[in-house]
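Query structure, 218 tokens:
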């Protein structure tokens, strides 16, 4: 929503939540910008290629890619199955790779930007989220690899949120706020503003992992 408020036309993707995606499109259009939703399974190279093609056909160009599809799961490391491990990496790591690869020629042409959504878990190990943390750490490395490979035409950065809550705080997460130097958990707007910084800040900034965690990771 912050990108639309800043005047950007926005295309969002969804896998199965068509109704929710359309509601988001209507909210985006209230900012007097073009908005659309396209079905996409980021685990599928064919689905990704089709989605990118549709967006470019409708908008005529692609300037900014935000890779924000992700899944999260709690599991003891010793009990994680191969299927759980692969499922996590399919979405959290392979997904951004496939979408960025498909978007590359369009972003190269527009001197564009890629913004990945990583995680504090990719910077600090969480014992009960081994497959999640590892997938996000891989995404952080992918960010820096793409920053070098796609330069100088495309800048590539990553926002790594800490504990983010939307609305009323679940008591189970209150202890995170108590451990955070800023004495609160983050909000979706904190993350959105960090994305907006990379979207319209200096193109010279690339390969950066920006923790949006209120100091929780210190």
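Result returned for the query:
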């Amino acid at each position: 929503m912050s990108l639309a408020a800043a005047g950007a036309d926005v295309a969002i993707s969804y896998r199965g939540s068509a109704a929710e995606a359309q509601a988001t499109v209507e909210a985006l259009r209230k900012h007097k910008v073009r908005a659309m939703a396209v079905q996409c399974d980021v685990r599928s190279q064919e689905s990704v290629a089709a989605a990118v093609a549709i967006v470019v056909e409708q908008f005529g160009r692609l300037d900014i890619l935000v890779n924000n599809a992700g899944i999260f799961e709690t599991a003891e490391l010793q009990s994680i199955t191969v299927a759980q491990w692969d499922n996590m990496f399919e979405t959290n790591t392979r997904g951004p790779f496939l979408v960025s690869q498909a978007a590359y020629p369009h972003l190269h042409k527009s001197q564009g930007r890629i913004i990945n959504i990583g995680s504090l878990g990719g910077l600090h190990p969480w014992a009960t989220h081994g497959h999640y943390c590892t997938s996000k750490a891989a995404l952080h490395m992918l960010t820096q690899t793409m920053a070098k490979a796609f330069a100088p035409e495309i800048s590539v950065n990553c926002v790594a949120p800490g504990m983010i809550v939307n609305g009323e705080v679940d008591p189970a997460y209150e202890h995170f706020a108590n451990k955070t130097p800023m004495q609160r958990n983050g909000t979706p707007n904190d993350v959105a503003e960090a994305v907006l910084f990379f979207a319209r800040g200096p193109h010279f900034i690339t390969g950066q992992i920006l923790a949006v965690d209120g100091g929780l990771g210190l």
